[in-house]
Amino acid sequence: MELGLIGLGKMGGNMRERIRRAGHTVVGYDRNAELADVHSLRELVDALPAPRVVWVMVPAGEATQATVDELAGLLSAGDVVVDGGNSRWTDDEKHAAELAERGIGFVDCGVSGGVWGLENGYALMYGGSPEDVARVQPVFDALKPEGTFGAVHAGAVGAGHFAKMVHNGIEYAMMQAFAEGWELLEAAGPVTDVREVFRSWQEGTVIRSWLLELAVRALEDDEHLEKLRGYAADSGEGRWTVEAAIDHAVPLPAITASLFARFASRQDDSPQMKMIAALRNQFGGHAVTNTETRP
After folding, report:
1. How far apart are CA 287 and CA 284, in angstroms?
2. Which member of 144, 164, 183, 237 is catalytic?
3. What is the model's pLDDT at position 174?
4. Model-level pTM?
5. CATH says 2-157 is which class?
């Protein structure tokens, strides 16, 4: 299969490599010419045989909207656009309607896996018509982890990003729980080696998980997280999760509290947020703020 891929940053670049390893052809475009295979979206579209599949992997919001707008003028009826960024699900319906006017299909795909996806595979949650999803299926199969699980057709357009949004909301709460436990262990007297306590939980406990493994990795690099300032950003999906909960009258106290804790981190040097920042850096390569730097 031949695929156009727009956005070759931390996620997109590794995704291009994984798809190529599976035997598919990828034509990549990025504003950074050193990363790109072609120099414009026009060149990317012209390099692909019709009907085309073009995957957009750029920041949500204005960048995604501008890319979809430009593709709408370049692609032809029968082509399919995939939005694999962290777009809000409500934007998906808008993009799908815009492209449908020209006979172009649309699939939204929530992607999880961070900087580890190249080797481990990416968890994929996608939404769209069965026909459009089928067109992209070889790429989904190339990106997903080995085995039965790791990819799901979540529903119609918007369902993929909605599922990924809730996934990230849960992630917020899980990271917050690890961070709170770590701070309490550090503050209390009886435990003398917090890092080894965390390490011991990796086997035989009900909280063993990949996040726990990443917490241990972070503590191996900086045992007391003294190099980090207690500041953690939020990508927007935690906010959208809480907003959706309000819209549907679904109580989300843990996820909401974890979002508000990140807001608190911007006012004080929170020890808990040092762990949150360390975990986000470990699994996604997200930037951290060290003790000498202010945001």
Report:
1. 9
2. 164
3. 97
4. 0.87
5. alpha beta
